[in-house]
Amino acid sequence: MKNKKAAVLVAGSWGTALAAVxxxxxxxxxxxxxxxxxxxxxxxxHRNHKFLADAVLPDxxxxxxxxxxxxxxxxxVLFAAPSSAMRDVxxxxxxxxxxxxxxxxxxxxxxxxxxxxxxxxxxxxxGGDPGRLVVLSGPSHAEEVVRRQPTxxxxxxxxxxxxxxxxxxxxxxxxxxxxxxxVVGVEVAGAIKNIIALGAGLSDGLGFGDNAKxxxxxxxxxxxxxxxxxxxxxxxxxxxxxxxGDLVVTCTSKHSRNWRAGSMLAEGLALEVVLERMGMVVExxxxxxxxxxxSAQFGVVMPITEQLYNVLFQSQSPRSAVENLMGRxxxxxxxxxxxxxxxxx
Length: 345
Prior knowledge:
It comes from Paenibacillus plantiphilus. By secondary structure, this protein is an alpha/beta fold.
């Protein structure tokens, strides 16, 4: 029986890892990339050295720089482009996506300027029923997924049928997939946790210990939930894989780009130098700017985000940011937690 066809746009670390998951589920996968060199390497050597140097990719993954070739006839189209490139990639792909194709995105961020979530960007560019779009998120480092280490994620869609289709497409013995109807919550959680991961790297880079990081994660989750609920999310989402699960993995792992970037900032490196040395997109930087604007728009207090915004864009020192957080006014924890989670205390 002929394999199903999937297209993955683009061939970064996460797109490549998810392409391998789809290949394990008997999809013929075409990875689209703008780089001819990268496409040749994937096709000849079955490797993507720049993003996942140690991984050997399945033979059923091919690469192409031709969008029409990559997308035409695909039953599933996975968007894994950076948030800054999502609209452009979707616009290029739109003419070739079939009406019945399942469209999934796995990008954690907001569009700069418009502050739109990725499903909103995709629905505007792809047309059709926006409820059919699916977001894939959760605690998942590409480096572990591509090695088939146990990973559990969530797929969210306004359409339960679409969510279950995505669940079937991605679930393997190594890659467990839950469904969730809360698209807003899953997208907000996935985006904002990158800010907290920057803060965790910054805290570790300053030599602070586990006590500081535990407090940062706990109060960071509160900021994520406050903004998410103001935008219409279900608070239960933040206690699940897309919320606390993704927050923990991103704030505590050497694989996390955002953690590494925060650690380098703590060493006194300028933001431009950090981004140049990383050589990959650090979504938390753009997201900090977006969340700073969203917090004002929705009237949500986000002190960690505010301090990181000042470090990234207002030349504040990392150490003074921590001092400002520790010096905030006294408060009652139960009252604050009740407010964070929309409960009456």
